[in-house]
Amino acid sequence: MARSVNKVTLIGNVGGPPDVRTTAGGSQVAKVSLATSWTFNDRSGNQQEKTQWHRLTFFGKLADVVEQWVGKGDRLYIEGRLEYSTTEADGVTRYWTDIIVNEMVMLGSRDRDSSGGGRPQQRQSRSASQPSKPRKPITEPEDDIPF
């Protein structure tokens, strides 16, 4: 039997605060937009920049980490898989491409000082309807990026 691969690897900047929700079963789901950019020279020789936006979805403990530590401008390395879906509202069908994240490394933040030292401040929970629960401290991951 032939194997197949559905793998996405991105490094980019978070576009806004995470949207964190709780499923009926009680597990967390976090959604974040991630921007990746590249530059190129157009036909006139002028340098242009192109940005792509990606929809990231995190589940379970990874969603908890995103809720607590990730915010707008943060730089992330992620690995995941593509998942396609459709929704229909008012007779209009919309097509979605999501990246279901299974690995994440926080690379830094735009709003931290340039020295790069120190840990990010713990962020407030985004959902006011959920009671606050004690959380274990999260250790910073080691730099094990494969390139």
Keywords, please?
147 residues, mainly beta, five-stranded mixed barrel
Mean pLDDT: 81
Form type? globular
- How are helices and strands ordered from N to C? EEEEHEE
Largest sheet: 5 strands, mixed, barrel
Question: How many E-type strands?
Answer: 6
Strand content: over 45%
Which ranges are low-confidence, i.e. pLDDT below 50, for 5 or more consecutive residues?
A: 113-142
Strand order of the largest sheet: 1-3-4-6-5
Task: Characterize this entry briefly.
With 147 residues, this protein is mainly beta.
Give a description of the structure:
- The chain has 147 residues and is mainly beta.
- The protein has 1 helix and 6 strands; from the N terminus they run ββββαββ.
- It has one helix at 60-69, and strands at residues 8-14, 19-22, 28-41, 47-59, 75-89, 92-108.
- It is globular, with a radius of gyration of 18 Å.
